[in-house]
Specification:
This protein is an alpha+beta fold. It contains six helices and ten strands.
Amino acid sequence: MPELPEVEVVRRGLADHVAGRIIDHLELRGSRVARRHVAGPEDLSRQVSGATVAGVHRRGKYLWLALARGAGEPAELGLITHLGMSGQMLVADAGEPDPKHLHGRFTFADGGPQVRFIDQRTFGGFALSALDGSGLPQAITHIARDPFDPQFDAARVSRVIKSRSSAIKRVLLDQKVVSGIGNIYADESLWRAGVHGNRAADALTKPAIARLLGHARDVMTEALAEGGTSFDALYVNVNGASGYFDRRLNVYGQEGRPCARCGTPIRRVAFMNRSSYFCPVCQTKPRVPS
């Protein structure tokens, strides 16, 4: 699933192509793409058509177009997009043939390039939500700030994490505690910090947690500079290009390869219906009481 760096790459690409443009029509194919919009796809399309894209924003893994009723007017609605496992937002000229798995198409009043939503696994989609006073869609106010947010308070988040008895990796993946960190960057951050993902969060000191959050920001910053992490063709930017940070991953997906610090083979274990990767020497497994 795309994580913060991948979604931020898409956000920046969309902002370059759609900010300030008027949506002529949003074509939605099938009901799944708008299943989070209770009134259905036809209502969502009707409400979006004619709106001006005042900006493109992100919190964690959520992306939204801020929509205003006219140019220069304040944005009132947020068209939320979650990419799910395989969602793509691609910019294309009107004359280009429709790709497979096309579920949504934005056309604009200026007749310029379209934006197409492609989703092979159909876990992504759109929803419409009113914006609160800060410009955040009300539907995602439960999502915590991410480490790239100017108002992210690492000290406060460290206190919250310190209060949890769950395994630290589970807490990092809790989007109500800190958003944007997924399986890839959790493993990479834990490796950099020398912390095993099964260690209890409340067993770590607050300074250690703050350092871990710093590693998370650092690794995601580096991933963003590389266009994100692409393991296959399911994640691409708005121009269809892959990211290259997979070449710099130290543990995620590196089972059996030597640890970059100590040379010990990286291990993989099952974790929450997915996988965790770690170095058994650099990241000592916590003892389990008998």
